[in-house]
Specification:
The complex is a heterodimer.
Chain A: E1 4-6, E2 11-14, E3 19-25, E4 32-38, E5 45-50, E6 55-57, E7 60-65, E8 70-75, E9 84-93, E10 96-99, E11 103-108
Parallel strand pairs in A: 2-11
Antiparallel strand pairs in A: 1-3, 3-8, 4-5, 4-9, 6-7, 7-8, 9-10, 9-11
Chain B: E1 5-7, E2 10-13, E3 19-24, E4 31-38, E5 42-50, E6 53-56, E7 65-71, E8 74-79, E9 88-95, E10 103-104, E11 108-112
Parallel strand pairs in B: 2-11
Antiparallel strand pairs in B: 1-3, 3-8, 4-5, 4-9, 5-6, 7-8, 9-10, 9-11
Classes of the chains: A mainly beta, B mainly beta.
């Protein structure tokens, strides 16, 4: 089992749709969680950190479920510009940060 | 604020040549990471440094790869001799501390002919 797993997609959604991604992690002692966004041929960029109580940034909502060991990202009112690959990142402690393989999202007009 | 700066942005060279990639981390960041990304293998961690000291180089594919960090503001990743299978995008990232988000440079697109 991979330490961090994501559905590779692609998710194809129309503009204005709501879409959600999940990411599971295997190490119950994992301490920090992040979502990154990577556009084609660009570097990964931090989208948002994920806090235990859940957090929201505009159209984006991130949640953490420690009992089931997953984090989620919800995108509301999808825009064409949201088309990208979304990477789940987990810090497990002891200098170890693991990037998921990413979920591809295509938002179409 | 300046982000992570990598050079060159693109490198095309023939197999057998030495390749040197450079990285300047964000000032004040104690951690520096080198990654390689390909379509087949995704994003792979090669090595990382803490306070200029290599902590984990288990991701370095083989002895042809080496990395140094002579001071807090500069790191190199060297491939000698280079091979076509080394073709990839190489990213450098830095972070201020353990468990903190990493900030990536623009990457170096390396093509070995």
């Amino acid at each position: 089992r991979k330490e961090v797993e994501q559905d590779p997609g692609p998710f194809n959604v129309p503009e204005g749709a709501t879409v959600a991604f999940n990411c599971t992690y295997s190490n119950s002692a994992s301490q920090s969680f992040f979502w990154y966004r990577q556009d084609c041929r660009k570097e990964p960029k931090l989208l948002m950190s994920v806090y235990s109580s859940g957090n929201e940034d505009g159209r984006f909502t991130a949640q953490l479920n420690r009992a089931s060991q997953y984090i989620s990202l919800l995108i509301r009112d999808s825009k064409l510009s949201d088309s990208a690959t979304y990477l789940c990142v987990v810090y497990t402690g002891g200098f170890k940060t693991i990037f998921g393989a990413g979920t591809r999202l295509f938002v179409k007009a | 604020d300046a982000g992570v700066i990598q050079s060159p942005r693109h490198e095309v060279t023939e197999m057998g040549q030495e390749v040197t990639l450079r990285c300047k981390p964000i000032s004040g960041h104690d951690y520096l990471f080198w990654y390689r990304q390909t379509m087949m293998r995704g994003l792979e961690l090669l090595i990382y440094f803490n306070n200029n000291v290599p902590i984990d180089d288990s991701g370095m594919p083989e002895d042809r790869f080496s990395a140094k960090m002579p001071n807090a503001s500069f790191s190199t990743l060297k491939i000698q001799p280079s091979e076509p299978r080394d073709s990839a995008v190489y990213f450098c990232a830095s972070s201020p501390g353990q468990g903190q988000p990493q900030h990536f440079g623009d990457g170096t697109r390396l093509s070995i002919l």
